[in-house]
Design a protein that fits this description.
Length: 375
Amino acid sequence: MRIRSLSLTAAAAALCLSLPSVANAQQDFSDMSWDEIVAQAQEEGEVVWYVWYFQPAYREFVQPFTEATGIEVIIPEGTHDGNFEKMLAESGRDAGDIDVIALGGSRHALFDQSEYYHGPLSEILPGGDQLTYELEGVDTNGYGVAFWGNQTGLAYNPRLVDFEDLPQTLPELEAWMEENPQWFGFNYENGGSGPSFVQSMVRNIMPEIDTTDGEVSEERLASLAPVWDWFLDRSDQFVITASNADSLTRVNDGEFAVVAAWEDHLASLQAQGEVGDHIAFYIPEWGHNGGGNLNGIPLNAQHPAAALVFLDWLTSAETQTALNQRFGVAPMHPDADDSAALVPNEMRAYSRVWTAQPFGDEIRNQFIENVALEM
């Protein structure tokens, strides 16, 4: 969804290598009871949460937490890359500005959480053994806790195409695109739903390519040629859109019948009345990427106890149910109600893990060079 950029800027990469990873002053919660942590949290009185999407909606969503605990939640503006770079840049300071930072699952492959985060949270949070600490093929070993599950797939306009006629396999997609030229759209920038579609085509057209291997080499890049030929041979049958939001706006208006999309993005726009409730979503049998986002507490957080209490609330079954109802996310607590999701649980069997980095980012770059710029 709009919410995730898997690229790491050169500046952030350099920071990962050069900055000290441990703040001079950090608190050890291992010997504290949960009641003691809560008492300290109320004394701290606030928690600063850096999350890169839906900031206005989140400021409203967290009000029940403040009302219940008296702890104010401050949510600054920021981007995925910008927030991550800020955390790295501040890691050598005694006190940073970030109490809780949300990052996409794959981003955690780029740094050692045990050197930057308090934890393991799995050993501190009440019921921590029920929570999820591994997403998109990256295990944070209990230091990053999942709070948001998301899924890419295809949004469609039932006024133009019935569910029974939607393509489920690669041959069906090829036939459907030929019969319905220009009725399918996807993006390659400003959101990850289109890149997820491209990765799914790599898996299906070239199944011999191991997408769990993130190595980038000239040989591996050359092996992608049949995928780019597949797209170029059908360049008059699909439309490249400007963004995730652009795709959904245009399928809503009837310009497209099917577009690449994020489940939670669609649900959120429908809740806001920006996309009609008639637009539906499905995960085709050929598979689309799914994943989610996790929160961590930097070692130099100024309000670490409040951060723990906030994460306990955010990952609870009740709050995860509310997130599902408000945003359509896949809940990250086993006892949460996911009935507001846009797809049935059995369809999630077609969810796939994102291509390992940095090969995943390079697939997008190669698509731009070999397809988008050639059209």
